[in-house]
Design brief:
Layout (H helix, E strand, L loop, with lengths): L10 E5 L11 E4 L3 E7 L3 E5 L2 E3 L6 E4 L4 E6 L8 E7 L9 H4 L18 H19 L6 H24 L9 H14 L2 H5 L4 H8 L3 H12 L3 H19 L4 H7 L5 H12 L3 H6 L3
Antiparallel strand pairs: 1-8, 2-7, 3-6, 3-8, 4-5, 4-7
Length: 287
């Protein structure tokens, strides 16, 4: 989108007015970041996961890393896209309480399919927090920078949670689509003892839980995310590994065994392939 290079490697606040490369054709994308966006004059149609996303009334939209967003431009309308977008790489949160807490916010889920309406006062409140995060990212980074930015993100999420509950308190949540149910099945498996006892879930296991065939599941994921089911499972595994490396004193071998690997070398090789860092190098980044 030809935006300036971010001043912080893992956190960025961008203005939509600064986007220099508008979409001219439909495009599907998967970002590696949490995105919290406030958008005005939004002349595009979104498909979030498998369902249309309603931006007609609301102006705020949130995404988790690895989720699928399809963008289609309405060429009949003049483009006056404006607003703010906070992008947070999940690695920035590791070794903080927010790394786990951020997953509890339902507005990042595929099951949410409409943008949040904000009053002028609410919008000004959230934009003010984003501006403070932007100022902190622009300042000379010091020992307190990360803690200050984390505190501002937590405040932003708390306000956003309040506003979502206010808007959707009587809303009947739609049935989750396949992608959302997939996230739940994998998450529950990783929280149970099955990972250590039986290793990674198989594609057949996941498909059976979703009541669809393995071939259908793999084909669906390939079209929507560009990833196979196995690759999707590996992404969740790496997320779990990062959590253990940054929040526990367990050795790399102990973590490998807890994650279902018979040989720690296999775990280290996969981690290196996915992150370009060895497990030890990743852990050292937080010490």
């Amino acid at each position: 989108m030809q935006l300036p290079k971010p001043e912080h490697p893992l956190v960025s606040v961008a203005r939509f007015e600064d986007v220099k490369r508008p979409y001219t054709a439909p495009v599907s994308r998967i970002m590696d970041f949490y995105s919290i966006a406030i958008k005005r004059s939004f002349n595009v149609k979104l498909k979030y996961g498998q369902q249309e996303y309603d931006f007609d009334e609301g102006i705020m939209f949130c995404m988790s890393p690895g989720q699928v967003l399809r963008v289609e431009i309405d060429q009949t309308q003049e483009r006056k896209h404006s607003g703010w977008n906070l992008l947070i790489h999940p690695d920035f949160l590791w070794n903080t309480p927010l790394a786990k807490a951020i997953k509890k916010y339902a507005y990042f889920d595929y099951s949410v399919n409409e943008a949040l309406f904000l009053s002028s006062k609410e919008e000004a409140c959230l934009i003010g927090i984003m501006q403070r995060i932007r100022e902190e990212c622009s300042a000379n980074l010091d020992h307190f920078s990360r803690d200050v930015i984390i505190a501002q993100i937590e405040l932003l999420l708390t306000y956003t949670d309040r506003f979502y509950h206010r808007q959707f308190i009587t809303r009947k949540i739609n049935n989750h689509q396949v992608l959302d149910r997939l996230e739940q099945v994998i998450s529950e498996y990783f929280k149970s003892d099955d990972l250590g006892k039986h290793g990674l879930p198989t594609v057949a296991y996941i498909a059976e839980k979703l009541n669809i065939s393995p071939n259908y599941l793999s084909g669906l994921l390939k079209v929507l995310t560009g990833q196979s089911t196995q690759q999707h499972i590996h992404e969740k595994l790496i997320e779990k590994a990062k959590e253990k490396l940054s929040t526990t004193p367990l050795s790399v071998s102990e973590i490998a065994y807890e994650l279902g690997f018979e040989h720690p070398q296999s775990f280290s090789k996969l981690f290196k392939t996915k992150t370009n860092l060895s497990p030890v190098e990743f852990r050292q980044a937080f010490n």
